[in-house]
Design a protein that fits this description.
The protein has 11 helices and 13 strands. The protein has 338 residues and is α/β, with parallel strands linked by helices. It has 2 domains: 9-30 and 247-334, Aspartate Aminotransferase, domain 1 (Alpha-Beta Complex); 42-244, Aspartate Aminotransferase, domain 2 (3-Layer(aba) Sandwich). It has a 7-stranded mixed β-sheet with strand order 2-8-7-6-5-3-4, with helices on both faces. A 4-stranded antiparallel β-sheet has the order 9-10-13-12. A two-stranded parallel sheet has the order 1-11. Helix 3 packs across helix 8 (233-243) and helix 4 runs parallel beside helix 5 (103-111). Bound molecules: pyridoxal-5'-phosphate.
Length: 338
């Protein structure tokens, strides 16, 4: 069965019998401010796409990578990695995953027949040989992060066990560059792959472009197994502009931080909750009765993400207009009851 994510508004709109256009959709962690798309030359649409040296140079600068390759969203690689690892190590059979986290990882390894092992706050200490460890940093939906030191120690354990460390940094753009583990990957660091998502921070998830930052040999594998036209020309064109637009990136970080703080204070008072874990792309509100609150929000045409564990609601960041609307919908007279 397909995994439920945020988005997919039509399903909820139908369920609550409220037209899609009336919903306030905060169900994803995609920035509400999108990188402005300028006119795209006709040629970009006409030609088959090529990943140019200039494109790679820009991407490597942005991600601080020695080697990186674009894929059609990091999801595309999440789906492929179990087969790529098995091809390298036919006896590979174990994967370590966060118990709570973007479920597509679990789905991909499970489908490929790997035995699943779960961890959460503490990274796995002992590993099977030829295993894979997936770390989502920051975790979605929990927002937890791991430091470079913690990840380096894990990488050493992976090294001893001939295992692979996959770090999903889909939401890492909101942090300082030093947060990213990409800086630790050298040309011969064959036991780490970092996945980067373009769509979230740049607010263009529909463009379908993401990146693998890795060693030279993983770069070759990912490149050759991706096929010649995996990422469409307009996506390459727009990403090349966005990734080098430092002033837009700085302004975006600021905007997201401001909106995140405002949303957090609104939710703290309106939902009267004690625990909200927030970052600049989404926040997770822990509630004793999350499904009931989710239902009340849906009745007000506010769509957020109820976690798979049913213990929290994840809110995407609202822009000014959405925030004003949310404030009205959650005003004291109509306060959500816990
Ligand atoms: C943690 C995480 N990783 C990866 C993805 C995939 O994103 P994309 O394929 O747009 O890069 C998502 C999407 O929501 C996500 O939440």
């Amino acid at each position: 069965m397909a995994i439920l994510h945020g988005g997919q508004l039509s399903r909820v709109a139908l369920q609550y019998n409220i037209p899609e256009t009336q919903w306030l959709d905060l169900s994803t962690g995609i920035a509400p401010f999108s990188y402005p798309i300028t006119d795209i030359p006709l040629k970009v649409w006409q030609d088959l796409p090529t990943v140019s040296e200039q494109f790679l140079h820009v991407a490597k600068q942005y991600y601080q990578a020695q080697y990186c390759w674009p894929v059609s969203g990091s999801q595309a690689l999440i789906e492929k990695l179990p087969a790529l690892w098995r091809k390298k190590h036919p006896s590979a059979g174990h994967v370590y995953l966060p118990k709570v986290g973007y479920k597509e990882h679990q789905h991909a390894w499970q489908q490929a027949g790997y035995e699943l092992h779960f961890y959460q706050k503490n990274l796995p200490k002992t590993l099977h040989e030829n295993a894979v460890v997936v770390v989502i940093n920051p975790n979605n939906p929990l927002t937890d992060t791991f430091s470079i030191k913690q990840l380096s120690q894990l990488q050493q354990r992976c090294d001893i066990q001939n295992s692979l460390l996959i770090i999903d940094e889909a939401f890492a753009d909101i942090f300082e560059p030093a947060f990213s583990f990409v800086t630790q990957i050298k040309a011969d660091t064959d036991n780490v792959i970092v996945l980067r998502s373009f769509g979230k921070f740049f607010g263009l998830a529909g463009l379908r472009i993401g990146f693998a930052c890795c060693s030279l040999s993983w770069f070759e594998i990912i490149k050759t197994t991706s096929g010649p036209w995996a990422v469409n020309g307009p996506a390459l064109y727009i990403a090349e502009q966005a990734l080098q637009d430092k002033s837009w990136q700085q302004a975006q970080t600021k905007r997201l931080q401001t909106q995140s703080q405002q949303l957090q204070s609104l939710l703290e008072s309106a939902l009267m909750v004690s625990r909200i874990e927030a970052n600049a792309l989404f926040m997770t509100v822990f509630l004793d009765n999350a499904p009931a609150i989710y239902d009340q929000l849906c009745q007000k045409a506010i769509y957020v993400r109820l976690t798979d564990e049913n213990d929290a609601l994840r809110f995407g960041i609202a822009d000014e207009i959405q925030l004003a609307r949310l404030r009205l919908l959650l005003e004291p007279s109509s306060l959500i009851k816990q």
